Amino acid sequence: LVEPIGRADELALADGLIQSTLAESRAADTHVRALLIGGDAGIGKTTLVNAVGRRAAARGLGFTVGHCLDLATGVPFGPVVEALRVHVRDGGGAMPPTLSVAWLLRDTASAATASLDGLISATESLARAAPLVLAIEDLHWADFSVRDYTLALVRTCRAPRCSVSTTSSSRPAPRRATLPTRSCTRKPSAS
């Protein structure tokens, strides 16, 4: 597998978020962590996300990815359901299925039946079982449901986990393009 070349600063930032997520996963008072990776097409956002995922997995965190598609229409919450379903089916957190995640195991489960509250609840359940890195690729193509989920997760989720989202712009990439990364740590708002 390919490690990003020239991305030591970005990987160090991601490593710090992963370490603090692990350290805090044992604490009663958790913080929400988010890493937004931005850059032009072909600059290496997906390579960086995959490297973050490998690093997270090497430290015992779950890792899963949902993909937003460049479609005029799509099923609400599609990338979120994709990511959570893969994580649950692959034994994410090695937890027995609770009501909040059991529906993801059914063959008839679909994004069309998902709700914002149900997905936040499922994400919290999975992250409580084992800290989780959830990547949403190509967030710039996301519909309102996925954007709402991402915002709600960052603002209200009360379980330790790290959320990774990518986006890009239409500007042409310079010769040695810088891949902007931003990290944010927030205390969840009171429910």
Give a quick summary of the entry.
By secondary structure, this protein is α/β, with parallel strands linked by helices.
Descriptive report:
The longest helix has 17 residues, at 8-24. Helix 1 runs parallel beside helix 2, helix 3 packs parallel to helix 5 and helix 5 (116-129) packs across helix 6. This protein is an alpha/beta fold and 191 residues long. It is globular. It contains 6 helices and 5 strands, in the order αβαβαααβαββ. Strand 3, helix 6 and strand 4 form a beta-alpha-beta unit. Helices cover 39% and strands 17% of the residues. The chain has helices at 8-24, 45-58, 78-89, 99-102, 116-129, 144-156; strands at residues 32-38, 62-67, 132-137, 161-167, 181-186. It has a 5-stranded mixed sheet with strand order 2-3-4-1-5, sandwiched between helices.
Query: Span between N and C termini?
Result: 41 Å
Bulk shape: globular
Mean pLDDT: 78
Largest sheet: 5 strands, mixed
Strand runs, count: 5
Low-confidence stretches: 171-179
> Strands of the biggest beta sheet: in what spatial order?
2-3-4-1-5
Share of residues in helices: 25-40%
| Rg estimate, integer Å | 16 Å
> What is the helix tally?
6
**Class derived from helix and strand content:** alpha/beta
Strand content: 15-25%
What is the H/E string? HEHEHHHEHEE
